Amino acid sequence: MSDKPERISLAGRLRTNFLTGMIICAPLAITVWLTFTFIDWADSWVTPYIPQRYNPAYYFNIAIPGTGLLIAVVGITLIGFLGRNLVGRSIVNFGESILNRMPLVRTLYKSLKQIFETVLKEQSSSFKKVGLIEFPAPGTWAMVFVATEVTGEIAARLNEEGEEMIAVFMPPTPVPTAGFLMFVPRSRLKLLDMTPEEGAKLLISGGLVMPDWKPAAGNIAVAPVPVVTSVK
C-alpha cells in the first residue's frame, strides 16, 4: 500500500504562501527603493545648479525624477569628450597645475585621481578576480578580491625572498564597503572562477547565496577504484 501524502494545515499553507510572497516582493521592493533613492540623491546635488529655463520642472510644474542624474551623465560624458582633444587637455592641465600648488589639496587630488585611473582605466584587471587566502589562522580561509601586483618600495621590501607578492582586498560581511588591504605571496593565493559580482553576492548574503559552479572536465578528480584481491 502506498503511503498517503501528509496533509498540510491551513496555517502551514498560509505560512508557505507568505514566505513565497516575501521572496518575490522583497528583492523587487528593495531594488526599486534603492534605485529611486540613488536618483533622488543625484537630483538633489545637480538640480539646484540647473538654470530655471532649462529645468523641465519649471514648465510642467512637477518634479521629474532623474532629470539631475541624466544631466550629470551627459555633462560628464561631454567633459570626457572635451578632455580627449588638444584644447580640452590644455584646460585640464592648466587646472591641475593650479591644484598642484595647493599644499593639502594636491595630495588629496593626486590620490583620488590615481585611484580612479587604476580602477576605471580600460583593460584594467583590478578587482576582476576573486581568491582565497588563509586568514586568520592556517586552515581557515577568507575570500578576497585581487587588487594588483605589488610594485615600488613595498615590492622591494617584500620580494626579498624571491616570491612575488599580490595586493588583495578583504572586505567584511555583510557590508563590503570597508576592509583590509593585505599583501600575500602569489603561492598563498587560491584564485576562484567566480566573478566579482558573484563574490559580492556571497559576501552580502553572509554565505547563503552560493554561485553555481561546474568544474571543467580536466579538473574533475576521479576517485581511484580499489583493487580487490582474492585470498585463498
From TrEMBL:
Keyword match Transmembrane helix: yes
Entry's transmembrane regions: 21-39, 59-82
InterPro entries: COV1-like (IPR007462)
Keywords: Membrane, Transmembrane, Transmembrane helix
A Pfam family assignment: DUF502
Name of the protein this chain belongs to: Putative membrane protein
Annotated organism of origin: Allorhizobium taibaishanense
Taxonomy of the source species: Bacteria, Pseudomonadati, Pseudomonadota, Alphaproteobacteria, Hyphomicrobiales
